[in-house]
Amino acid sequence: MLKPQASATREIINLDGVWQFKVDFEDEGFSKRWASQPLDTQLQAPVPASYNDIFTDVAIREHVGWVWYQRKVRVPRGWSGETIMVRADSATHEGVIFVNGEEVVRHLGGYMPFEANITNRVAAGEEFVLTVAVNNVLTNETVPPGRVITRDDGTKQQTYLHDFYNYAGLARSIYIYSVPKNAITDITVVTDFSGSTGFVNYEIETAAENVEVALFDESGNQVATSIGAKSQLKIENVKLWQPLNAYLYELKAKALDSKGVVDEYSLNVGIRTVKVEGNKFLVNNEPFYFTGFGMHEDHVVKGKGHDNSFMVNDFELLKWVGANSFRTSHYPYAEEVMDYADRHGILIIDETAAVGFNQSFASMFGGPKLPTYGPETANEKTQKNLLQAVRELIQRDKNHPSVVLWSITNESETGIPEAVDFFKPAIELAKELDSTRPVTYINVMTEPFNKCLVAPLVDVICLNRYWGWYEDHSDLPNAAIHLEAELKGWTEKYDVPIIITEYGADTLAGGHSIHNLPWSEEYQTAYLEMSHGVFDKFPAVVGEHVWNFADFQTKPGIFRVLGNKKGAFTRDRQPKAAAHTLRARWTKLNQK
Ligand code: BDP
């Protein structure tokens, strides 16, 4: 699904703004056909934003079920004869779009775009009523999974086994856009180079009779052309897309019929290669070392709402601290983020929302402890949804040069054969859909090298390790010994690159201790330095992503102090001492 854009043949209207908003406390919005009438409400909610922290009413924040958004939309006069689409960049976790009261599309999975052709339901120049119902419920079949339980007073409560707050609503933009008949419906590019010659292999989907493609450099000079829906562009004196030194060509595709151009679509293309060789992770055939973070889409008030100011500032901080990469822990991020990373040379480990498939977390997050895989937990329907999530992720993000590794799941239970049955098809699907990028999963501490059964299936091993925090708490000498012993085990067993995708310590900004007590800024710094000393002993360790970039909101818990405090930055993006430590190390590492 191509991201909508304006071109000579396409127009787009962004519907960001303040919408009518109603919480469906009695679960009656569908039966009473709320979409067919003006929403009976005093509330309005901003789009894009998670709705939870916007209002002061705790009943809204903690609501379990549907909420409804509504607004009027006028279709531009000039759109007659065009195909008219409506698109949501996401609806967390399930979205239903209605046009003039009629359902036009329904989508499950909270972090992916979906759209519908509404040409026959609207008219150019006329207004229509757009309603979006959004459901925040997580069940054993959703990705991520969860469980709704009933309190003693009969009210519902959402439980889940992942460590970030279940923000919901319309956190990304909604659009209507026009496309011509016989439009370009998909583009896939795969890049390569040999010496100073670059190659862009492309494939374009369209019902139009012919296709013309031209590639332009950053100064706007045309550097290659081709004809046909599937071909190769050859670029002499190619400028490669490099980590922290991005170069983007613009591919302009035109679909034509006998009368001329019917559609135009532009795509940014970074020419680069990614390969795994032995224990090396190669970008443009050079060994690459990941510095950066596991992140979250998380801010005050907006929750997971996309915001360009926050996004640009986060990237500025990444650059300042010497990060060259991050992981979209634990769900796909807004497409604007992917575009920005392309433009700024930041590498991405792109992750599905498969987090919390691990019942051993029940003791920590509450709820009954069941088998992780089984009829009442992760079952065939869940697996089907996971496969769909992998398909949608790769479909959406396949052309981003920033994306260098697909992550199928975070911290699932992987030491039992059921885990192989559950995840192997998803790993295979990722490889089948994209043979150009390696595939990984993120290993949890409780599934070490001699236990985990999923590790042999992937190209890169990613480890989340908390020696010195959850284990050997406040005992860094022991933590160092155990971390080293573990990495020795992994590197002896597997000849693949290893990325430490999480290591970190909760830290209260402004907390200090001359004795390096946990939660102090001193302890976080000492913890990181201990970890780095161990990583540096292993050539197979090709990257370090601190958990987390910034403090973030979680479900309340006795081990969470107004959220997770493992950020190198506070939630309002001020550096803790650790950020300076990382900056000193990473700036030097990136100069090598
Ligand atoms: C890991 C998870 C991450 C948590 C982190 C923590 O992958 O989502 O927030 O640990 O406990 O278990 O801080």
Number of helices: 9
Specify the structural class.
alpha+beta
Share in β-strands: 25-35%
**Poorly predicted spans:** none
What is the typical, i.e. mean, pLDDT?
97
Rounded to an integer in angstroms, the radius of gyration calculated over CA atoms is 24 Å
Helix content: 10-25%
Q: Please report the distance between the alpha carbons of the first and last residues.
A: 39 Å
Q: How does this model look, in words?
A:
This protein is of the alpha+beta class and 592 residues long. It is 19% helix and 31% strand. It is built from 9 helices and 32 strands. The strands form 8 sheets. The protein has an 8-stranded parallel barrel, surrounded by 5 helices. Helix 2 (308-321) runs parallel beside helix 3 and helix 5 (380-397) packs parallel to helix 6. The chain is globular, with a radius of gyration of 24 Å. The structure holds beta-D-glucopyranuronic acid. Residues 163, 330, 410-411, 464, 502, 547, 564, 566 line the site of beta-D-glucopyranuronic acid (BDP).
Short description:
By secondary structure, this protein is of the alpha+beta class. Beta-D-glucopyranuronic acid (BDP) is lined by residues 163, 330, 410-411, 464, 502, 547, 564, 566.
List the helices and strands and how they pair.
Layout (H helix, E strand, L loop, with lengths): L10 E4 L2 E7 L20 E4 L1 E2 L7 H4 L4 E9 L8 E6 L5 E6 L2 E7 L5 E4 L9 E9 L11 E4 L5 E4 L9 E2 L3 E6 L4 E11 L2 E10 L3 E7 L5 E6 L2 E6 L13 E9 L2 E10 L4 E4 L2 E4 L2 E2 L2 E5 L13 H14 L3 E3 L7 H10 L2 E5 L10 H4 L14 H18 L5 E8 L6 H17 L5 E5 L16 E5 L11 H18 L4 E5 L18 H15 L5 E7 L29 H15 L1
Parallel strand pairs: 25-26, 25-32, 26-27, 27-28, 28-29, 29-30, 30-31, 31-32
Antiparallel strand pairs: 1-14, 2-3, 2-5, 4-13, 5-10, 6-9, 6-14, 7-8, 7-10, 11-12, 15-16, 16-19, 17-18, 17-20, 20-21, 22-23, 23-24
Helix pairs in contact: 2-3, 5-6, 7-8, 8-9
The chain binds beta-D-glucopyranuronic acid.
Beta-D-glucopyranuronic acid binds next to loops.
